[in-house]
Design brief:
The protein is α/β, with parallel strands linked by helices. The protein contains 23 helices and 35 strands. α14 links the parallel β18 and β19. The longest helix is centred in the C-terminal third of the chain and has 20 residues. The radius of gyration is 31 Å and the shape is globular.
């Protein structure tokens, strides 16, 4: 019998390995590497999904092996290169094989199951209490029960159900179905030759039917919808023609495509002298056909996108494929219109704003080789292109490229691995590169190509740092200061547009009672709730819990509620009060939840149908509007003093990026940065768009703190519902790590810090504590961490506590 090695879904990290299964004779020749299967797993033979990763040589001992239950794919859904990438991810992210393999597939390709057991025959004699309890549910003509019913009503375990299956009393049926099915369209064509068809419809003397036959007389087929539109024939008429044998029915696949209307043709860009120099340097790297990486460092508005266009033209002309990554869904429509206008239907889009069916069909187009340029957010780095030639990581510094769920990968790291596999080029573009990325370039790991001036010599915005100290004493109580208010009024008078950036959604970060001091606290998280005036509720931004705000304190019933730390909703209300005739748009997570909402807001603002755009970090990157001449940073201090070693970097990048939205054409731009700390060096560098001075200053700070990129940092996070159990488990884990460093890993001695609570220690009812190791990323570290995580999950003292590892986390 043939044997295959399978990665199973049910395996935890502690027991994760490849499990051998027998391929039944009926499936021999059909089960291939990269196919998904259903297999029995564990003592109870629970049916779980798995992925075939290896076919074993014949002659294996099969006496103790179980057999595959069901083959789920007619053809492999993953190829050898994707499987090798998944293995590489597993080794570095400390997660299971199956979790890494699942990253490669769109959610529409996943399965849903409705598991049932069907009666074959009733036993002739009693079988024993647990077995008889299950069989009793199949009385009175009941021949089928769901797994959930058997577990709930008869307390059936997997072992009991497996015994009944083996004895021939019940059979298991998975009723498994793919979440997104292929979309088809009903097509009509002539069922006979043209003469016979004409003779039939002539006898009926129906001019509509004659029109139908005439349109289809060239032997083509047409969808029923199109045929009705062209001839006026109703569905009933067409059904009658099918019944009489005049028309034949067939079904053709129709791919669901995202709505990218109003795409205008785009010519090949004409590059400036500086852009041409950068392009030639990157083109030379493409020509090596070896794994290469480069940093494209250009000020905001310098025309990095035009360089991308020219490089992509070269790669596509060479018969290779391109992946273009952007950090925000909101940037995708702009890029899609631009690149579809240049490259047509060879473009495919992948991001979470699409429906599951649209993502599934985009994945099919890419895999079939019908799309050669993939544009998308973080997960698009796994797009199944055939001949990868180029990956572009736009705004490469953005923390949206870091996954917050297991597997906790960074798109930049995956992109580097993919270009190594494919002998391709990785271009990392940014006006504010990540400190790690620029440090790597300064160490000579890859070249830097710099665009120091804006396209066509457009000047950078004139920046004013507005000191807000003392304004409340003068009676000014608005979120925007007097200086910004006057600048907005001036912009409105000139009929020019304004963007206001405030990275806090909702009405107010804090709402409370001025009499008794009550503030709404989340029952599941150690944080207060944010007030949203649109729906009159206080909402937790971590778990989504909410309460109704009635205008009275729920503790003392006083009507005196106060609000502090304004958000985008409050700012929008103030703008309507200050400028009642201004047309204001708000762009944050609350207004962009609906499908295509980003695209609609961008279209309205881009066409000049709004005067002011208020938004969170969605408005800070990549947007390019001709009429925007004023940008306001409403609260520059918000992230500056966060408990995060990347706080300065993140603040500098956000302010620099949003300031760069102003004056991108022939009009002088202006930016105003509101702060209570006008002398801060980070804000001064951002105002001047002086990245190099900021980099030198920040690198010195990282050297003093021994933080990345000076030293790598690995964070182990323990989570659980009982704080004392989490803390004691993390203390045991620290003791074990230090012990191993004294013995088996004596060659790998590094400090272990903690355990310390997370900045928000309780989220969704689970407490979080960290251990931090400052150590290099090498094989010994991977062996140490993989070993202790396996030990930890097997130790019964740690029951109820889970631990995961994350390299150089964005937040602590």
């Amino acid at each position: 019998m043939q044997v295959c090695a399978i990665a199973v879904q049910a395996g935890t990290f502690a027991i994760d390995k490849l499990y051998d299964y027998i391929i039944p004779e009926a499936m021999e020749g059909q089960v291939q590497v990269g196919c998904r299967v259903l297999v029995p797993f564990g003592r109870g033979n629970k049916k779980v999904e798995g992925m075939v990763l290896l076919l074993r040589p014949e002659g294996q001992d099969t006496s103790k092996l179980k057999a595959i239950t069901e083959l789920l794919d007619a053809a492999p859904v993953l190829d050898a290169e994707q499987i090798r990438l998944a293995v590489w991810l597993k080794e570095r992210l400390y997660c299971t094989f199956f979790d890494c393999l699942r990253l490669m597939l769109p959610s529409g390709l996943w399965f849903r199951r409705s598991e049932v057991y069907r009666l074959v025959r009733q036993p002739e004699a009693p079988l024993g209490a647990p077995l008889d309890a299950v069989m009793a549910l199949f009385q009175d003509g009941v021949s089928e029960r769901t797994l959930e019913e058997l577990q709930t009503e008869a307390h059936a375990t997997g072992v009991v159900l497996s015994q009944l299956e083996q004895a021939g009393y019940l059979t298991y049926h998975s009723n498994i179905a793919q979440k997104s099915q292929d979309k088809t369209e009903k097509m009509l064509s002539l069922a006979t030759d043209i003469q016979s068809a004409m003779a039939q419809v002539t006898r009926g003397r129906s001019p509509v039917q004659l029109d139908v036959v005439s349109i289809l007389s060239d032997g083509s087929s047409m969808s029923q919808k199109e045929l009705s539109y062209m001839t006026g024939a109703s569905d009933a008429v067409l059904r009658a023609m099918v019944r009489r044998g005049v028309l034949a029915v067939s079904y053709a696949e129709r791919l669901r495509m995202p709505d990218c209307t109003q795409v205008e043709p785009v010519a090949s860009p004409v590059l400036s002298t500086e852009q041409e120099r950068v392009y030639q340097g990157l083109h030379a790297l493409l020509g090596t056909h070896k794994p290469e990486a480069a940093l494209l460092f250009g000020v905001t508005g310098s025309g990095k996108t035009q360089v991308y266009l020219r490089l992509i033209e070269d790669v596509l002309a060479d018969g290779r494929d391109v992946i273009l990554l952007v950090p925000e869904i909101g940037l995708t429509p702009q890029f899609v219109r631009l690149f579809m206008g240049r490259f047509g239907d060879t473009v495919a889009v992948l991001h979470s704003g699409l429906s599951a069916g649209e993502r599934y069909d985009s994945w099919k187009r890419i895999r079939a080789g019908r799309a050669h340029l993939v544009i998308g957010t973080r997960s698009a780095v796994f797009a199944p292109v055939h001949k990868l030639g180029l990956i572009v990581l736009d705004e490469e510094q953005d923390n949206a490229y870091q996954s917050e769920q297991s597997p906790r990968y960074h798109a930049r790291d995956v992109a580097k691995r993919r270009v190594q596999q494919a002998d391709a080029l990785l271009v990392m573009g940014s006006a504010t590169p990540a400190i790690e990325t620029y440090y790597g370039a300064m160490q000579g790991k890859y070249p830097v190509f710099e665009l120091a001036e804006r396209y066509h010599g457009v000047p950078l915005p004139q920046v004013t740092i507005d000191d807000l100290r003392g304004q409340t004493r003068t009676g000014w109580n608005y979120t925007i200061g007097r200086t910004m208010c006057e600048a907005i009024a001036h912009n409105l008078m000139k009929k020019e547009q304004t963007i206001l950036f405030l990275n806090r959604r909702g009405n107010s970060r804090v709402i409370g009672c001025s009499v008794c001091g009550w503030v709404p606290e989340c029952p599941s998280c150690s944080t207060t709730m944010t007030y949203h005036s649109v729906n009159g509720r206080a909402i937790c931004h971590f778990c989504g819990a909410s309460i109704k705000i009635t205008g009275q304190c729920p503790e003392c019933y006083a009507p005196h509620l106060f609000t502090e730390c304004a958000g985008t909703q409050k700012l929008e209300e103030e703008l309507h009060e200050l400028f009642p005739k201004a047309r204001v748009l708000r762009m944050d997570a609350d207004t962009t939840g609906r499908k295509n909402a980003h695209d609609h807001l961008m279209e309205v603002f881009g066409k000049g149908r709004a005067d002011i755009l208020v938004g969170t970090q969605m408005v800070a990157k990549g947007l390019d509007f001709d009429r925007v001449t004023l940008v306001g940073v409403v609260d520059a201090d918000q992230s500056l003093f966060a408990q995060d070693y990347r706080a300065h970097e993140r603040t500098f990048a956000l302010i620099t990026q949003v300031v760069g939205r102003a004056g991108r054409r022939d009009r002088q731009g202006r930016a105003i940065i509101q702060t209570y700390h006008p002398e801060d060096a980070v804000l001064s560098c951002a105002a001047r768009q002086d990245y190099k001075q900021f980099y030198d200053m920040e690198l010195a700070r990282r050297q003093a703190l021994l933080m990345p990129p000076i030293q790598q940092m690995l964070m182990l996070t323990g989570t659980g519902e009982q704080e004392n159990l989490v803390l004691s488990a993390m203390l045991r884990l620290k003791t074990r790590i230090l012990g191993l460093m004294q013995g088996q890993f004596a060659d790998f001695r590094y400090p272990v810090l903690g355990p310390t609570p997370a900045s928000v220690v309780r989220v969704m009812g689970r407490y979080r504590y960290h251990l931090i190791l400052r150590c290099p990323d090498n094989k010994r570290r991977r062996q140490l961490i993989a070993g202790i995580l396996t030990e930890f999950s097997k130790d019964k003292q740690n029951r109820g506590v889970t631990v995961f590892a994350e390299l150089n986390p964005d937040t602590l």
